[in-house]
Design a protein that fits this description.
This protein is α+β, with helices and mostly antiparallel strands and 566 residues long. It contains 18 helices and 22 strands. Strand 1 and strand 2 form a beta hairpin. Helix 14 packs across helix 16. The longest helix has 24 residues. The radius of gyration is 27 Å and the shape is globular.
């Protein structure tokens, strides 16, 4: 059987052990039989996965996946071969329902006693176990006398309401699928339609991955993270990270990577301390976890802007005299930025993004809640990462730090504005240590994540209209530690390339005004408002667009009585 799907559809909907609908039947993906390996920076992917999968490690439900990555277990990063593809098999393969009389057969070609030959379909319910990740087809009892069984669907998706009886004597056989113990011995199977998100939830990371591995090596190994963090905290004034002076900390890490002893490094740093060739790194008082995350997100910004970056100041410089865009750029763009609480919106027309799926869960969406099953490599102790590497266009949106501090004060956080933008950003980062959620208070990271995430969803829903791009053709990459987010287009979607650029160059002020002023109510209110202020009618996005499962969202964050955009 040959069916065609886009690479992005395959990456999210045709992963190993995932069930799919094709030509009226249910199938299970065996594997990507043919694929090509990506020549990318594996170390960056490992670091991203370790951070993302940390919740499962903490709950002991990762099967030592994160520990093995730290030990150096190999990973291979693969991309689908579009000329070959994916191997699938029927699933369930012993439960075929006659479309006429609803008798259940063990073979798809078995003749039905009803005499009508209009075909059979799979029973679309499956059993799964969130504790071990098992997937099983349901056991369906037959009438002991007539050796037949019929399924009666209740018209709902509830497996408990399904009734099985004998089509000959009408004797009831079972309601639902019963209490079936899993072979792992840790509980019972749950039964749902096979495409329910609880049956299979893939987990992915998104990293910015330039095709030039030498640039990655220089940035990540030669003291790049602290250098990138200093650049971001200073407002990214230089066009890219290569124009930033090296710092004493970046020099230290470079020398450490070369195996020099600490006493020699200290003497070399002391000798270089008075040189104008070195820039200072802010002395942030962050615990290691937050320091690493702040640096990692700064590296993403540095990598994204290596090859392309267009700022509003570049647009202003590009217009001559009384061009029709002179006042638009100089007045309207800057005014709209201020009203929308933004420091900047920038265009990245060569945005190198890698989406990598590393495993799946069965059960809930919350990280660490259910067992994480990584994709293992066949014939080795390593892991396979299924990915799509693309170069597309993106907008980088960054919130104004003092406006964020004002909003955080209204949320109950004691954070003061700095004397300049750099110190304000530093104050926000250092407050993360104080408000870590361990003492029962709100976690500042969670609050910032909700603000940035909600703003990104609002922005996407409006930007899709202005750019002419389908809403599911836009995705997000959040950088809450630096008060920003990327909105980027799916490179293989329709009407993507140039859509964001056109908006940035001609209608950015109208887009921002729409984000701020267009109706922000929800058709599901008051139920949506009372349950958190986020649903399909207002903030939710499709799975390819939001990889955070539409969690940690709220319109109240933006438009509530103390909302950021009020």
């Amino acid at each position: 059987m040959v069916e065609y799907r886009s690479v992005s559809q395959v990456l999210f909907g045709f992963l190993p052990e995932q069930t799919v609908d094709l030509k009226g039947r249910v199938w299970k993906v065996k594997d990507w039989v043919h694929f090509s390996r990506n020549d990318i920076d594996v170390a960056s992917i490992k670091r991203a996965i370790i951070r993302h999968a940390g919740a499962w490690e903490a709950s002991g439900k990762d099967g030592d996946f994160v520990t093995n990555l730290r030990k150096g277990f190999p990973i291979q990063v693969v991309t689908i071969d579009e000329d070959n593809g994916v191997k699938i098999e029927p699933f369930p393969n012993k439960s075929w329902v006659c479309r006429s009389c609803f008798r259940v057969h063990s073979e798809p070609d078995a003749p039905c006693p009803c005499g009508k030959d209009i075909g059979k379909s799979n029973l679309y319910f499956v059993g799964y176990h969130d504790e071990c990740g098992a997937l099983r087809e349901p056991y369906i009892p037959k009438c002991k006398e007539h050796k037949q069984v019929r399924v009666n669907f209740p018209g709902t998706a509830s497996a408990a309401e399904i009734v099985f009886d004998c089509p000959v004597c009408n004797a009831p056989l079972r309601k639902g699928f019963g209490n079936v113990s899993c072979e792992c011995g840790k509980g019972n199977l749950k039964f749902l339609p096979h495409r329910a998100s609880s049956v299979y939830t893939p987990h992915s990371v998104v990293i910015v991955n330039p095709p030039d591995k030498e640039k990655i090596r220089v940035l990540t190994e030669a003291g790049g993270p602290p250098r990138a963090l200093s650049w971001v905290l200073s407002g990214m004034e230089e066009d890219n990270i290569e124009q930033v002076k090296s710092s004493s900390e970046s020099l230290r890490r470079t020398l450490q990577s070369q195996g020099l002893p600490d006493d020699v490094i200290d003497k070399m740093l002391q000798a270089a301390g008075t040189s104008d060739e070195f820039d200072s790194v802010p002395n942030l008082r962050l615990i290691r976890e937050h320091q690493e995350e702040a640096e990692a997100q700064a590296v993403i910004l540095a990598l994204a802007t290596l090859d392309s970056r267009v700022q509003i100041k570049d647009l202003i410089a590009s217009v001559q005299g009384e061009s029709r865009f002179t006042k638009v750029y100089q007045r309207d763009y800057l005014s709209s930025l201020s009203k929308a609480g933004l420091k900047s919106v920038e265009l990245i027309d060569k945005f190198p993004v890698l989406t990598a799926q590393y495993g799946y869960t069965r059960g809930g969406h919350k990280p660490g809640e259910d067992k994480l099953t990584p994709f293992k490599s066949k014939g080795s102790k390593g892991y396979t990462i299924y990915s799509d590497l693309a170069q597309t266009e993106a907008l980088y949106v960054q919130l104004e730090p003092n406006r964020v501090i004002d909003w955080l004060q209204g949320e109950g956080f004691n954070i003061i504005q700095g004397q300049d933008e750099k110190s304000s950003r530093q104050n926000i980062l250092e407050a993360i240590n104080k408000y870590d959620g361990t003492g029962g208070e709100q976690s500042l990271v969670d609050v910032l994540q909700k603000l940035i995430h909600s703003y990104a969803h609002r922005f996407i829903r409006v930007a899709s209209v202005f750019s002419g791009i389908d809403r599911n053709g836009l995705s997000e990459l959040l950088l809450p530690y630096h008060l920003g987010f990327f909105i980027y287009g799916a490179a293989k979607g329709d009407f993507v390339l140039g859509g964001l650029q056109a908006v940035f160059e001609t209608e950015l002020h109208k887009l921002l005004d729409a984000v701020l002023y267009e109706d922000h109510r929800c058709a599901m209110d008051p139920a949506c408002h009372d349950s958190g202020g986020a649903c399909m009618g207002c903030l939710h996005l499709g799975e390819p667009s939001c990889r955070h499962f539409n969690m940690n969202l709220s319109r109240k964050t933006l438009f509530g009585r103390k909302g950021y955009l009020r």
